[in-house]
């Protein structure tokens, strides 16, 4: 069952990444697109046990760092998504999370991940960007992620819950 | 499958609490391990610089994702044309008028630019003697764009090493300079756009032949433009002047490719330099068909546009 879950999770990350770089730029707002990989990681963190979500966050971040259009220092998204997964896994309760809790978690995770990525860029002086530009990117990214939550999170959470019965949250 | 079914409510509640506790305690050791792994990767990549140990990994991931991105982009392309069907005759008439106006303006520019280009060619002809500037173009389409969250302005194109594309080649479209190739896989290549804050292009002001450096501003808006700093502090660039690449036959950017027009000039007293804003000719928010400049006669898996305009 664990293997199947890993396959499903990694397939979800691959699909999310390809859609994120090839489809969403057509409807992007000033080049800012929804971070679908982050949504997959949050869905895992809200449904299955924390170690799985943490490792998935690291793997998804590493894929974002290495897949073609990316040219920033590798490891920055891996760091950001690992910490986002850790925070999202802490939020989860025993009951199935309410819609509001899911949206709140996505917004918080999106804010934390994008800000961490931006901050690591400032520290490494990878690209030199103005603070106003960074704030705009972070806020618009949060809005995008929250907008896509109703369409992406429920099916993914159902999938993860079905593939991990011992953690199923009826 | 369900290990906890069949127990009474009270029991379930207790096990529920148990699970709650175990679940709300994500393993700190794993978090620390993964964070340290990320930091190790960052350190490796930063200290590696150009020959970073992660380049092979990037290449492998690129080989895997390149075809998928090309396929999705090809599937999406028919739908991106849909908004164009719902346009009224008035819209089209408006657009025609705008295009006629800009066409006339551009024709004026081109006539002047031709003069400048001729001078540049003469100059190049004098200095580089028999250097062959003729190069062929490999046509390609943009299949993926990096997001603003990732803070780098890079795109993936669907031509790779099999099409004769290699690192540091110049990428243009029919408006002007797009960027340069960073790395290639078999079927795709990653292109650094000139608007990336890390991108610096050697530029030459068309009318005065002064040289300078054009840096990206990190914005997709065309008005935000590029930054031009001239090497000679004394010369003042003039508005509406065309900037072309200074380039060399061996460096990343081929010479004489139009970059943009100067829209504003600032002089900084403190630094005693001239800074000009260059509006690029290329609309980077609507990139589609681009050409990669390859040496004339290069092997390719597709039709190549030769320097004299013929298809091969």
Notable characteristics:
heterodimer; A: 170 residues; mainly alpha; Arp2/3 complex 21 kDa subunit ARPC3; 6 helices; 74% helix; globular; B: 312 residues; alpha+beta; Thrombin, subunit H; six-stranded antiparallel β-barrel
Provide an overview of this structure.
- The complex is a heterodimer of chains A (170) and B (312).
- In chain A, helix 5 (99-124) crosses helix 6 (131-163).
- Chain A has helices at residues 2-22, 36-47, 50-66, 76-91, 99-124, 131-163.
- The mean pLDDT of chain A is 83.
- The longest helix of chain A has 33 residues, at 131-163.
- Chain A has one domain (2-167): Orthogonal Bundle (Arp2/3 complex 21 kDa subunit ARPC3), CATH 1.10.1760.
- Chain A is globular, with a radius of gyration of 15 Å.
- Chain A has 170 residues and is an all-alpha fold.
- Chain A has 6 helices and no strands.
- Chain B is of the alpha+beta class.
- Chain B has a domain at 90-295: Rod shape-determining protein MreC, domain 1 (Thrombin, subunit H, Beta Barrel), CATH 2.40.10.
- Chain B is built from 5 helices and 12 strands.
- Chain B has helices spanning 9-23, 28-48, 55-80, 82-85, 89-127; strands at 135-145, 154-157, 170-172, 177-184, 189-193, 200-205, 211-215, 226-230, 242-245, 258-268, 273-280, 289-295.
- In chain B, the strands form 2 sheets. In chain B, strands 1-2-5-4-3-12 form a 6-stranded antiparallel barrel. Chain B has a 6-stranded antiparallel beta barrel with strand order 6-7-8-11-10-9.
- The radius of gyration of chain B is 26 Å and the shape is globular.
- Chain B starts with 8 loop residues before the first helix and ends in a 17-residue tail after the last strand.
- The relative contact order of chain B is 0.13.
- Residues 1-18 and 125-133 of chain B have low confidence and may be disordered.
- The chains are: A mainly alpha (170), B alpha+beta (312).
- Chain A: Its main location: membrane.
- Chain A: InterPro entries: Cell_shape_determining_MreD.
């Amino acid at each position: 069952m664990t293997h199947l879950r890993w396959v499903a999770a990694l397939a979800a990350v691959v699909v999310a990444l390809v859609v994120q770089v090839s489809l969403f730029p057509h409807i992007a707002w000033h080049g800012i697109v929804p971070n679908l990989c982050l949504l997959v990681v949050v869905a895992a963190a809200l449904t299955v046990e924390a170690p799985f979500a943490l490792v998935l966050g690291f793997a998804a971040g590493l894929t974002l760092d290495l897949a073609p259009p990316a040219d920033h220092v590798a490891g920055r998204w891996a760091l950001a998504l690992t910490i986002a997964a850790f925070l999202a896994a802490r939020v989860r309760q025993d009951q199935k999370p309410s819609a509001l809790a899911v949206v709140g978690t996505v917004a918080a995770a999106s804010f934390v991940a994008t800000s961490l990525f931006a901050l690591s860029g400032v520290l490494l002086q990878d690209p030199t960007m103005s603070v106003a530009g960074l704030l705009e990117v972070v806020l618009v990214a949060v809005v995008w992620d929250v907008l896509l939550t109703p369409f992406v999170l429920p099916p993914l959470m159902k999938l993860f819950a079905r593939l991990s019965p011992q953690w199923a949250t009826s | 499958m369900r290990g906890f079914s069949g127990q009474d409510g009270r029991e379930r509640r207790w096990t529920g609490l148990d699970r709650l506790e175990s679940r709300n305690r994500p393993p700190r050791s794993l978090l620390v391990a993964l964070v340290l792994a990320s930091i190790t990767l960052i350190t490796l990549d930063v200290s590696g610089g150009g020959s970073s140990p992660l380049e092979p990994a990037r290449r492998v991931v690129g080989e895997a994702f390149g075809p998928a991105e090309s396929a999705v982009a090809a599937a999406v392309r028919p739908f991106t044309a849909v908004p164009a069907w719902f346009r009224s005759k008035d819209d089209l008439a408006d657009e025609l008028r705008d295009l006629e106006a800009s066409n006339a303006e551009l024709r004026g520019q081109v006539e002047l630019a031709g003069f400048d280009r001729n001078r540049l060619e003469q100059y190049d002809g004098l200095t580089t003697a028999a250097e062959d500037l003729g190069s062929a173009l490999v046509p390609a389409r943009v299949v993926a764009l990096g997001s603003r969250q990732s803070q780098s302005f890079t795109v993936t194109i669907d031509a790779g090493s099999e099409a004769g594309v290699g690192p540091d080649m110049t990428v243009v479209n029919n408006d002007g300079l797009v960027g340069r190739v960073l790395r290639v896989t078999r079927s795709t290549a990653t292109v650094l756009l000139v608007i990336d804050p890390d991108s610096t292009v050697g530029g030459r002001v068309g009318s005065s032949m002064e040289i300078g450096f054009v840096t990206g501003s990190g914005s997709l808006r065309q008005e935000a433009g590029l930054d031009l700093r001239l090497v000679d502090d004394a010369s003042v660039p003039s508005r509406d002047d065309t900037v072309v690449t200074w380039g060399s036959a061996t460096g990343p950017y081929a010479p004489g490719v139009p970059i943009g027009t100067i829209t504003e000039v600032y002089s900084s007293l403190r630094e005693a330099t001239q800074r000009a804003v260059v509006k690029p000719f290329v609309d980077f928010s609507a990139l589609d068909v681009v050409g990669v400049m390859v040496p004339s006669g290069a092997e390719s898996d597709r039709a190549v546009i030769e320097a004299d305009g013929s298809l091969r």
